[in-house]
Structures are given as C-alpha cells and as structure tokens.
C-alpha cells in the first residue's frame, strides 16, 4: 500500500515538474521572439514611403535638446524648416541634411540662430510624401563636432480632417475651455490669423517644441489674457506646429498654409 502511494506521489510530482518546464520554455521563446522583433525595428533605413511607416531609432548628439518636427511625427504638410535645439553654443560648420532616397530636400545653407542654441534649414515645399531622415552635424566653438539623426514623415492625405478656411484674407481661432477652436486649419498663403482668448485663463501662442519654441519664432506671443488677441500673417507655404506654453500637453494646434 505504501509503495502504491509513493508511486502515485512520484507520478504527480513528475507531471507538475513537466508542466512548469513547458510553461517556462514557452515564455522564454516568447521573450526571444519579442526581442528579435524590436531589434528589426532598429535597422537603419532612409528609403521608406508614407504607406510603410517604419521609423528607426533617433541618434542624439552631445548637447542635443529637441528637434522640430519631432522624431516619428507624421505631418499633413511639408515643414517650413527643420530646427534642432542644443544646450551649448553652436559654431560653423554645423550642418543639417533632410534626406529621402539619398536626395537632400533642404534648401540653402544651415543657419545658426542668433542665440547660438538652435540651427535650422529650410525645406522644399514640393517635397514628396514619405519618411525623411534628418542627419545633422553639430559643431562647437572649440572645433569639435558630433553627429545625430532622426526621422519624420509627410502624408498630405492627413489634411482631410483640417478645417478648410482657404480663400479668406483673415481667419480667427478662439481659445476657450483650454482648447484651440479649431485645432487644425488650412489657409491660403497671405492669410492673417488672429487668436482670441475668450476665458479667464492666460494663454500663449508658441511654436514647437516646448520649451525651445524655435520652429518659427515670429509666431511666439507674450501672455494673452481674457479679451486679448494675437495675430500673425502667414507668407510662406508649409505646416506650422504650435502649442500654448501654459498648457503644452493639451493645447496643440496646426496651421497648413497653402
Ligand atoms: Cu493655454
């Protein structure tokens, strides 16, 4: 009788051990396949199209802070320029390239802003939809340089959910209930946009990113109180990315100038 009980106990133990061995092996296999998936996302490409959005990991140079467009951002239009912000004084020969399929869609030279903390390069407004790889070389007054890279995409079909305010010389955007109304608008080149603050909370108009606000400095306002307004006339086609620096996570806006 004792022998029978012992045999049953051994069988139960063996079955339990086998079951756990199976579970552990399976979860290890799953972990391995997840790792190889994320590794394949890291491969370097600069030849993708907007239909196949597969962003690589950005490479941040020394003293890098932010960039606009942001890495992985998908825009409804071509940005007027690509801007990269640093926490150290930039010097010549700092350079930005905006590449797709080996072609540079930047216009003119890379320009270092007056404060020395941002550099920018204009972008061709007729650049096609797709993923752009930005390669930059940031140089310091001591002559040393560090490189970095990031990607963004243009997909013009995303402009279908922008309010069409084209062919108006002036348009208004209300700031109320901690929102821009409307958040996404299309306007014609030469249009004057006025933001009106309708509530008892101070708001700001600031171009991206936060807090560098360097994408289009002309568009940066002071504090706008209740009943006050702020205006900008847009004379260059492209997409403008902005936010309220008092509410940068929720108040975000887009103006597509055509
Ligand atoms: Cu605000």
Class derived from helix and strand content: alpha+beta
Low-confidence stretches: 21-50
- State the distance separating the first and last CA atoms: 91 Å
CATH architecture title of the largest domain: Sandwich
* Helix content, binned percent: 10-25%
Domain CopC: 63-154
GO molecular function, one term: electron transfer activity
Domain Blue (type 1) copper: 170-258
Transmembrane segments: 6-24
Question: Secondary structure elements and their pairing?
Answer:
Blueprint: H1 2-41, E1 64-68, E2 74-75, E3 81-86, E4 91-100, E5 103-104, E6 106-112, E7 118-123, E8 130-139, E9 145-154, E10 163-164, E11 170-176, E12 179-181, E13 184-187, E14 192-197, E15 206-207, E16 229-233, E17 238-243, E18 252-257
Parallel strand pairs: 2-9, 10-13, 11-14, 13-18
Antiparallel strand pairs: 1-3, 3-7, 4-5, 4-8, 6-7, 8-9, 11-12, 14-16, 15-17, 17-18
Describe the structure concisely.
This protein is an alpha+beta fold and 258 residues long.
Offer a few descriptive terms:
258 residues, alpha+beta, Immunoglobulin-like, five-stranded mixed β-sheet, 1 helix, 18 strands, globular, binds copper (II) ion, copper ion binding, transmembrane helix
Write up this protein.
This protein is α+β, with helices and mostly antiparallel strands and 258 residues long. The protein has 3 domains: 1-41; 64-156, Immunoglobulin-like, CATH 2.60.40.1220; 162-257, Sandwich (Immunoglobulin-like), CATH 2.60.40.420. It has 1 helix and 18 strands. A 5-stranded mixed sheet has the order 2-9-8-4-5, with no helix packed on it. A 5-stranded mixed sheet has the order 10-13-18-17-15, with no helix packed on it. The protein has a 4-stranded antiparallel sheet with strand order 1-3-7-6, with no helix packed on it. A hairpin with a 2-residue loop joins strand 11 and strand 12. The termini are far apart. Residues 21-50 have low confidence and may be disordered. The structure holds copper (II) ion. Residues 203, 244, 246-247, 251 line the site of copper (II) ion (CU).
């Amino acid at each position: 009788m004792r022998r029978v009980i012992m045999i049953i106990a051994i069988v139960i133990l063996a079955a339990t051990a086998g079951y756990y061995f199976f579970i552990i092996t399976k979860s290890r296999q799953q972990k391995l396949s997840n790792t190889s998936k994320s590794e394949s996302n890291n491969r370097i490409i600069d030849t993708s199209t907007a239909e196949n959005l597969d962003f690589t990991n950005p490479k941040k140079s020394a003293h890098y802070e932010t960039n606009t467009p942001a890495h992985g951002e998908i825009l409804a239009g071509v940005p007027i320029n690509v801007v990269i912000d640093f926490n150290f004084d930039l010097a010549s020969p700092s350079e930005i390239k905006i590449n797709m399929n080996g072609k540079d869609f930047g216009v003119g030279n890379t320009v270092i802003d007056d404060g020395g903390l941002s550099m920018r390069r204009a972008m061709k407004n007729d650049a096609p939809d797709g993923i752009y790889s930005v390669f930059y070389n940031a140089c310091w007054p001591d002559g040393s340089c560090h490189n970095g890279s990031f990607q963004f995409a243009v997909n013009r079909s995303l402009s279908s959910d922008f309010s069409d305010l084209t062919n108006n010389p002036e348009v208004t955007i209300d700031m109320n209930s901690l929102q821009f109304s409307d958040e996404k608008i299309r306007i014609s080149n030469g249009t004057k946009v006025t933001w009106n603050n309708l509530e008892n909370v101070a708001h700001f108009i600031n171009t991206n990113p936060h807090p560098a606000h360097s994408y289009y400095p002309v568009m940066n306002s002071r504090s706008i109180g209740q009943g006050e307004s702020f205006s900008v006339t847009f004379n260059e086609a492209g997409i403008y990315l902005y936010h309220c620096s008092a509410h940068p996570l929720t108040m975000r806006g887009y103006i597509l100038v055509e």
